[in-house]
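[agent] plan:
  1. take the single chain provided in the ticket
  2. run structure prediction with default settings
  3. attach structure tokens to the ticket
  4. add a short note for the reviewer (M.T.)
[agent] executing step 1
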Amino acid sequence: VDVTFGGGGHSKEILSKLGPNGRLLAFDQDPDAWNQAEQIEDERLTLITANFRYLEKYLRLHGVKQVDGILADFGVSSYQLDAAARGFSTRFDGPLDMRMGPSAAMGAKDVLNGYSAEQLQRIFGMYGEIKNARTLAQAVIQSRTQKSLETTSEFKEILTKLAPRGKE
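[agent] step 2 finished; step 3 output follows
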């Protein structure tokens, strides 16, 4: 099972080592990953277009009682970082989205513009492992009083002021 299909590189390698009777179930909730999967013509591959948190459900659905291995390459994929429209890139300006898939109700723009300072601090500290999470949360609140945050470059500008290049 590949629970983070992404660009399909790991799955391709697994398929190259898999015997003729083997099966690979690959999970990804990102439609861009689904496009990558269409390029792999192998009947042993089953792409599951859902979050891997539903792993047990889909294993049962596909009649799998035991797996030999599970691969999980957590984080964002290089495609997500390189595609400005996805809202993850720090190199290219794009809309503040950062959703892993279209089923997520809220994008980064909604969170940054709508959450309280306390909620932002919790997110930045817990998920972003930001040491100065409170300072960053306050900077976001201050910035959005002037203008709604819409793009990755606007958010990056706030971050850069708090963590100049070369500083920890």
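[agent] step 4 note for reviewer: The mean pLDDT is 85.
[agent] ticket updated
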